[in-house]
Structures are given as C-alpha cells and as structure tokens.
Specification:
With about 80 residues, this protein is α+β, with helices and mostly antiparallel strands. The chain has 2 helices and 4 strands; from the N terminus they run ββαββα.
Length: about 80
C-alpha cells in the first residue's frame, strides 16, 4: 500500500506533499487512515486560509482518493505532508 497526502490552501496557498509506504505507518496512523477514508468528509472548512488535504491510497483494491478539511484531518496523517 502507498499513501500520498497533499495539503493545499492556507494563507500563502502553498502545496505540500508527502508519501509513505503503508508498512512504515504507525498503528495510530493506520487507525486514523481507516477512519478518514471511511468517513470521507469532502467538505471544506468555513473561513479563509484553511487547509484542505487530499489523501490518495493505492493498494491491491486499486486507488481511492478523499478530500478532508483541516478540522477533520488527524494530526498524525497531516504530518505526512509536512515532514
């Protein structure tokens, strides 16, 4: 499994991207990933200068992409885009 996390928006509108192999994710990150992918919020946070995250998962079942507002993004996954 491969996990790609992109962060968009914010004050400067910069894009950050990180990628991890599923085997390197912690148990906390695996749990957060399952929760976010199942919930698939997709909505944007109200207010200016908020971040939006795009999570892309590639595994044996194919590819799945969700968009997560900053308020629903677990910090353990958000860190993948900024490390």
């Amino acid at each position: 499994m491969k996990v790609i996390v992109e962060r968009h928006g914010g004050f400067a509108g910069l894009k950050r991207r990180g990628e991890r192999d599923g085997a390197s994710l912690s148990s906390e990150q695996h749990a957060a990933l399952r929760q976010v992918m199942a919930a698939a919020p997709g909505a944007h946070d109200p207010g200016a200068d908020r971040f939006t995250y795009r999570i892309e998962v590639h595994d044996d079942a194919g590819q799945q992409v969700v968009h997560v507002p900053e308020s629903a993004m677990p910090a353990s996954l958000a860190g993948i885009a900024t490390e």
